[in-house]
Specification:
The chain is an alpha+beta fold. The chain contains two helices and five strands.
Length: about 80
């Protein structure tokens, strides 16, 4: 599943980042590497941006970029 489809409050693990090389480098620098846990916390009014908790840091990611990040939902 892609990150854009992960519901608010659900935990997931990043599987891969399939964006352009420039964006991929930025996301990897922010800690979005395979195996990292990620959780959507809140979204903007039009859901253009979603804030995600990654390694105890809140990071906003555009919907267009979230479409290119593959995640696997974690079930407790």
């Amino acid at each position: 599943m892609t990150l854009e489809h992960l519901d608010i409050g659900k935990d997931a693990e990043i599987v891969s980042v399939n964006t352009s090389e420039n964006m991929k480098k930025r996301l990897l620098d922010l800690g979005l590497v395979p195996g990292t846990k990620i959780k959507p916390i809140l979204s903007s009014g039009e859901k253009e941006f979603v804030a995600y908790m990654i390694r105890r840091t809140l990071i906003a990611i555009r919907k267009e970029d979230a479409k290119k990040i593959i995640v696997r939902e974690i079930y407790d």
